[in-house]
């Protein structure tokens, strides 16, 4: 068996990015995925500005743009009688977001990983982890033809999604878990402007995101308890809500030729797992998953991969240093992602509170505050950087304005 420095299980956003960065640092990397890649997968598609900044830093943004997905520079949010129109501030010099189809984005990242020296094997299903006296030391996997292989590595990275096999085989416990809050149905529509737009109503949430081929992903979120009822008549219920919530599609019908296949996600779990152990690490949705309603999954996966490249990869060859780096990495990424997790749960409750409407009305009056609000949505700014005591006090009083520093 070849001894790899790093074996990455899962070849999509988190895994391909992490493998690419490790290979660029001079490590021997094996990347496995059980799917035939590149291929499509359920996704919100949206890469917010912080994620775009990382794509640019990694030198792959031009390839993503070359797929033909439009630059998204305008955002809108509608709830009650509040209508916000603006754009997120730039992150790392990147003003636009992008939402490429996943089979295109994943192909760009995989190609960059292979170009960096990663050995990639698709249709390889991991069936177990190899162990020695120090912990995990490799993987066992089965090919499409049924052949079983074993490969050894100094570090095994599980980037294989919410139902991670690596997490299961490593015995990674769930350390934070919240109830599942929503289910989502989406399809691809033609005829909408290239704008990221959100619509919130009682017990419903809709979003439109422009993607390739002049299409937009149109998603409708329902409370999780309604999933069984919705899926019994999914197309009609989905289209009825699209017509009611998205002004550009008021005339939508179930036989509309502007959209095709309907996609559904009924199990949007919210959790953090223990993310590291002797010889293993979890990345992306394998470590931490949250409701897709804020569309932060891809950008947060890139953030984790970038931190992995900076904090863990330099120490892979030294077992003692690696153990310390894994512990530090676990603490740092949880600190960075806990806020977006809590914010996502707040939105996914689909609960329109009057206090929040009052705050949004106050923000609506100032274009600078609107842009800062959308910067929180994108992850460019933190909540604390926008929702200052002065803003909250002014909104509560219903008078005055807050000026930007």
Structure, described:
By secondary structure, the chain is an alpha/beta fold. It is built from 13 helices and 18 strands. The chain has helices at 13-24, 49-57, 61-65, 102-115, 165-170, 227-231, 234-245, 297-311, 319-348, 354-364, 367-378, 383-386, 389-397, and strands at residues 3-9, 29-32, 75-79, 82-86, 119-121, 124-132, 135-143, 148-158, 174-178, 182-190, 196-201, 204-210, 215-223, 263-265, 270-273, 276-277, 280-282, 288-289. The strands form three sheets. Strands 1, 2, 5, 6, 7, 8, 16 and 17 form an eight-stranded mixed sheet that branches. It starts with a strand and ends in an 8-residue tail after the last helix. The relative contact order is 0.16.
Features of the shown structure:
405 residues, alpha/beta, eight-stranded mixed beta sheet, 36% helix, 25% strand, globular
TL;DR?
The protein is 36% helix and 25% strand.
Q: Could you give the topology of this structure?
A:
Layout: E1 3-9, H1 13-24, E2 29-32, H2 49-57, H3 61-65, E3 75-79, E4 82-86, H4 102-115, E5 119-121, E6 124-132, E7 135-143, E8 148-158, H5 165-170, E9 174-178, E10 182-190, E11 196-201, E12 204-210, E13 215-223, H6 227-231, H7 234-245, E14 263-265, E15 270-273, E16 276-277, E17 280-282, E18 288-289, H8 297-311, H9 319-348, H10 354-364, H11 367-378, H12 383-386, H13 389-397
Parallel strand pairs: 1-2, 1-8, 2-5, 3-11, 8-17
Antiparallel strand pairs: 3-4, 6-7, 7-8, 9-15, 10-13, 10-14, 11-12, 12-13, 15-18, 16-17
């Amino acid at each position: 068996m070849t001894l790899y420095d790093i074996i990455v299980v899962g070849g999509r956003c988190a895994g391909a990015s992490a493998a690419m960065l490790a290979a660029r640092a001079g490590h021997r990397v094996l990347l496995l995925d059980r799917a035939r890649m590149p291929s499509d997968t359920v996704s919100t598609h949206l890469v917010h500005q912080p994620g775009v900044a990382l794509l640019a830093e990694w030198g792959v943004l031009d390839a993503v743009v070359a797929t033909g997905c439009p630059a998204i520079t305008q955002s809108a949010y509608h709830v009650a009688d509040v209508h916000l129109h603006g754009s997120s501030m730039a992150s790392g010099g990147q003003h636009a977001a992008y939402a490429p189809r996943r089979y295109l984005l994943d192909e760009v990242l995989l190609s960059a990983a292979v170009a960096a020296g990663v050995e990639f094997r698709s249709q390889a299903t991991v069936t177990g982890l190899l162990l020695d006296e120090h912990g995990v030391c490799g993987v066992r996997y089965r090919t499409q033809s049924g052949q079983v292989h074993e490969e050894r590595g100094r570090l095994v990275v599980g980037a294989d999604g919410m139902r991670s096999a690596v997490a299961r085989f490593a015995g990674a416990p769930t350390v934070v878990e919240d109830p599942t809050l929503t289910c989502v149905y989406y399809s691809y529509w033609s005829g909408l402007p290239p704008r990221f737009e959100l619509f919130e109503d009682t017990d419903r949430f809709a979003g439109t995101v422009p993607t390739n081929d002049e299409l937009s992903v149109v998603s409708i979120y329902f409370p999780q308890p309604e999933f069984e009822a919705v899926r019994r008549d999914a197309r009609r219920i989905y289209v009825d809500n699209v017509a009611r919530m998205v002004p550009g599609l008021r005339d939508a019908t179930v036989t509309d030729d502007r959209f095709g296949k309907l996609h559904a996600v009924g199990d949007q779990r919210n959790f953090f797992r223990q993310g590291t152990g002797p010889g293993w690490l979890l990345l992306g949705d394998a470590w931490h998953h949250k409701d897709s309603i804020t569309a932060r999954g891809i950008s947060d996966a890139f953030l984790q991969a970038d931190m992995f490249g900076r904090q863990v990869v330099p120490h892979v060859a030294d077992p003692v240093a690696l153990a310390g780096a894994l512990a530090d990495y676990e603490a740092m990424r949880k600190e960075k992602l806990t806020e977006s997790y809590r914010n996502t749960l707040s939105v996914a409750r689909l609960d329109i509170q009057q206090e929040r409407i009052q705050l949004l009305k106050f923000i609506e009056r100032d274009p600078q505050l609107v842009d800062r609000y959308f910067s929180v949505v994108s992850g460019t700014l933190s909540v604390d950087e926008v929702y200052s005591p002065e803003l909250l006090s002014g909104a509560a009083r219903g008078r005055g304005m807050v000026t930007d520093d």
